[in-house]
Protein 1
Amino acid sequence: MSDQIAEGLTNSGRIRARTGHRVNFSGRHLGNSRCRTDREHVLSVRVDMRRTGYAARHPNLPALYRDITQRLEAMPGVQTAAVEMCSLPDCGWNTALYVFGGGGLSNAQVHGKEDHVGAGFFATMGIPLLRGRDFSGTDTDKSQTVAIVSHSYARQLFGNESPIGHWVGYEPAPHDHEFLIVGEIADARVDGPQFEAPPLVYMDIDQAPNPVQMIQVRAAGDPRDVAGQIRQALSEIDPDFPITEIVPFTTELNDGLGTEKLLARVASVYAGLTLLLLAIGFYGVMASRTARRKNEFGIRLALGASRRHIQVLILGQTVCILLAGVVPGLFLSAGAIRLARHVLYGSTSANSLAVVAGTIVLVLAGSLATLIPARRPGMADPLETLRSE
């Protein structure tokens, strides 16, 4: 046991600690990291081992998982593979970790989420290891039970102190000496890219065997090119292996955004209708305003103004009206975009585009509403206008 603590501390000294990192499964690293989580090369194999009863028929799940990962990693075009207990979205069980010899933590500090993964999971998903070591083949049900915590969970439990070598447990003392923390990884948005990264503790699935729901595979090229080979390899391991679907990880993420996509579509429809009604109303107001000034324009022509001068006058007044409405609207839109960013995931660029498009539509509507009626007073006969006056 003391050797494992020393191993964790030694590895921690070899790897430079990088704090403040978060990984966004949507393809971005947040915080100080400038790397990218390459989601485009990850293939997700969804399996149903629990409801089909497959797990109950296989008492030695760790051996099955090792066979699966070794077979997949030996395939051409596959870099790494790993198993995972849960799947996106809403990944992880609710759990609590109590620190050995560390009293005084609040209920919020000890609570987080838990997931069981196989060795190589973090490399497969592109989650950086900040301190310590990854799970390995030496972590078995006969060795000391180990755990790896995310950066946010480590900060909750230990503050700025390194979590490597600390003991934790599911219950307060004297049952807080169950798991040895051997690693710290960057935060990951496992509940979906639209949610903040939760505090997470990862357990080695070989030490606490559970039916897996996902097999994550990192391919060297397009992951869809190896989907058929993966299905065949798993069928060779066991023809009854319960594969439900094999999809790119990007598709897995997008499936978890169904509510957000529906909300975005509904909002887009209402925004489009609002913009159309606004453009029609603006056109009508400007056209009526210009038509009512027909006699004024005729008098200006009789007094020596040119037809071009009349048209420029009308356009200049319309531009002033547009600026009076568009400029405050742009400031209000900027505030609305910041608000929508917390409601509609990934909508910042789309909202900015919508603001630009809406501004262009209103400018065109105002210009047409001015130019078309302005042609009539420009063609009017000054003598007829004076007679009518």
Protein 2
Amino acid sequence: MPDAPQIDIVVLQPTAFCNINCAYCYLPDRNNKHVLEQSTVTRLFSELFASGWAGPNVTVIWHAGEPLVVPASFYREAFAAIEAMRPPSVHVRHSFQTNGMLIDAEWCALFRDWHVGVGVSLDGPRELHDANRRTRSGQGTFDRTMAGIRTLQAEKVPFHVISVLSGPSLDDPDGLLAFYLESGIEQVCFNVEESEGSHVSTLFAGEDLKSRYAAFLRRFWHGARASGRMNFVREIDLAIGRIFRPNEATTRNIQVEPLGMLNVDSHGNVSSFSPELLGLKNAAYGDFLLGNINTQSLAEIHASCLGSAMHREIQAGVAACRESCDYFSVCGGGAPVNKLFEAGSFASSRTSFCTLTQIVPTDLILEAYDRLEQSWTVDAPPPPPIASSIASSARLP
């Protein structure tokens, strides 16, 4: 088949329901307690593996709503079914993004048994976290999230945290870093609070957001490296591999590839491109759905994707980025969902989201590399090759 996809990421929604009510949540269906059927899991992965489109390493991200409101026994059954169908040439890894409040020894046993990647949503110390991450009755969730993190640490389950940066946290990189180090948190990811779906962030209204975020990330990154106790800052560490790479290697952006990212809700409805589109609606594109895996083959859904106006306009947006943006080789065409909600069209190019997630980290890394180059002397030449020496982010600040 022409234009056959390579599917490396499956975002799978066990339920849309969430047990808390974050102020910046954009998901419209988080009161819906419908749970994914095991038959849908079986159908999805039998189609995926039979298609030959699965990449050699497939990550299944159990996300949207709160995945841990569905019992651990559900996942043991689903994981076993997927493993029984998995071709020998494909490696499958499961990953959860959770608010951490329900983590206990049973969950940790599942995570260990299946080598599950675990991300915990934690916005920083109590005053920052509880400002936006609250229960449905309006109470803060910090204590229960931290209890979940302590359980992961006691059970020796690796994890990372994802922190949403609001105005106060952007102004306090030192406070955030001190909190993570005091809490024994070694891997951190940042999402700047953004406008998606029904949520409108006030951060993007300010003209100084780029400089504020650059100052935050520079300070946090340099402090994290100097501490010697934090081994991963996503915004920097992932960007380094995109910047310092062999000339023949291209940056792959699966958010602009049809079915490069396969997103499936608890009813079996399928979308692609940006996973945030799943569950949203738009006047021009409807519900962004391409079909349903329970009633259609993956090949039919792929054909629907290729023939959609959404695909055509996303590709037009990629072309616009390629023509107009000096950072295209790092980014590969941007995030469609942010183009739509910031500019009103998939066919647009640079967004504020691009500036924060691609341009700012790239500029900071190149800034650090320039300082490193200037420090080299005749007596201490740069260590070759660049791919093995510079790509170690510990060297850069």
Protein 3
Amino acid sequence: MIPRYTREEMGRIWTPEVRFKTWLAIEIAICEAWAELGRIPKDALDVIRKRASFSVERIEEIEKVTKHDVIAFVTCVAESIGPEGRYLHLGVTSSDILDTSMAISLRDASDIIIRGLEQLIDLLRSLALKHKDTVMIGRTHGVHAEPITLGLKFLIWHQEMSRNLDRMRRARETIRHGKISGAVGTYAHVDPRVEIYVCEKLGLIPASVSSQIIQRDRYAEYFCTLAIVASSLEKIALEVRHLQRTEVHEVEEGFAAGQKGSSAMPHKKNPITAENICGLARVVRANAQAALENVALWHERDISHSSVERIIGPDSTILVDTMIHRTTKLLENLVVFPDKMMENLKLTRGLVFSEGVMLLLVEKGLTREAAYELVQRNAMRVWREGGEFLEVLMEDGEIMSIVTEEELRGCFQLERSLRHVDYIFERVLGQEA
């Protein structure tokens, strides 16, 4: 039986022991298929099932001579079986084992990543609801724009990670293809029914057509999906980093008792987890580029992809799993400062309500260009000279000849700017909102 995994065991998928166990399961399944088709005696199959085993050390010893990992593996297993070992690897090629095994490994890695995404999505949903009414300033170009709520940030991330979950499920199905079709994919020395049997037993889909290998556009899609997931996680981490800056300080990472932020400056509390997530995303994206380079191979196959996939397979899946775990912990322990958010929102002394004022003037009959010019004129005065934007506007006779004070004050109400937040939440989360 091929072992199943929990999220904490992602690294185990890629150990030599588990890799060879998977190879052995494939080889035995091939023998079982041949036995059903009458190519292998039933009693020989019984011996293979009973005796087949391997030693990682023995495989490595043989490989030093053969310079070929699959031959070393088959030789080692055949030694454990005895004469019936001659039926191993019958009619198949190395890539039948390697690609089918990789499909299993990436599928199982996907299951772990999918469960991690589901947990993160649940957390983002709860944080979005918790902070639905936590008011803060929205920023474009890093500059104050208009009021939003922290809950809307979490809701956006919730939706993005939900899309990533869908992508990951699709990528799992894309990669879940095996092949037992021989040296160039023509089944020259293996019955197609062997492939059907093996894939069905191992939970895979037979590739409808293959060369010596599963086509690497499937791998490229898979690793690009991991890169998108990593980029979304980086997006969350980068926002935490920005909001933790001293002059902003609207959120911060949890800081454990005894934790140190700097070897030189005792006052430091740095967003090290968020920075770590951002850094790891670069590696996952780089690995996606490597997977794209693997799509184009010589004729029915060369080996240039093999060395690449031995790195990016374990690295990208382990890194994405790690990033999901760390992002979840980051958000679980996130410290939020609503008072600082409100303080920052007021830094521009009301300038963030300028669009509402402009639209009010348009409603009163001014052209958009004229209204924009009037509002901008007063906004620039606040930038230069200070003062409250509302008071500066009320000193402008041209504006006050068009609107009443009550109408003008109405443009500066947070409730007005955020009146559709409930609608957005209900559209996304339904009655839960």
